[in-house]
Design a protein that fits this description.
alpha+beta, OB fold (Dihydrolipoamide Acetyltransferase, E2P), 6-stranded antiparallel beta sheet, 14% helix, 35% strand, globular
Length: 153
């Protein structure tokens, strides 16, 4: 059993500032391991009549395989997150019509999990290797890493 005391932890003081790490250079392709997928409902901020289901996916990248990158950004491990907004049918099932769920198709193809007749569930993605291409997005002057695309590892 752990000796962790939540009250003491909440009362502990820090004297160091937390710092932001450098972004991973855009365009790099790195291999990582997929974490546990999570689903969530969403409602549109501009249009609350729009809603749907998203799957959030985390990819943990061990940068010890990329020592130059690790040294450049000052981290040995990073976790990047991506979301797949799902197109659903009227019956609230995944819409597999041509042109629907393109992002889901790309993830499944990168994992070798998009073969007709083979079973697929989002939980089956967990623990699998995937290669991600690093992109950047800017928000209020800060640069954030993002998964720009995925391919087979």
């Amino acid at each position: 059993m752990s000796n962790f005391d939540p009250t003491s932890f909440l009362d502990a003081t820090l004297t160091e500032a937390t710092t932001k790490r450098k972004p991973i250079p855009a365009g790099l392709e790195l291999v990582g391991i997929i974490g546990e997928p999570k689903s969530r409902a969403w409602v549109g901020k501009q249009d609350p009549t729009k809603s749907g289901i998203a799957i959030d996916i985390s990819v943990e990248i061990d940068l010890s395989a990329y020592p130059d990158v690790a040294a450049e950004i000052g981290a040995n491990k990073v976790t990047l997150n991506d979301s797949i907004m799902l197109d659903l049918t009227e019956a609230n099932t995944i819409d597999n019509a041509p042109g629907k769920n393109g992002k889901l198709r790309r993830w499944r193809e990168a994992l070798g999990m998009n073969t007709p007749g083979d079973p697929f569930s989002f939980r089956m993605m967990q623990g699998r290797q995937i290669k991600v291409k690093i992109g950047h997005r800017e928000y209020q002057g800060d640069i954030f890493d993002e998964i720009a695309s995925v391919v087979k590892a």
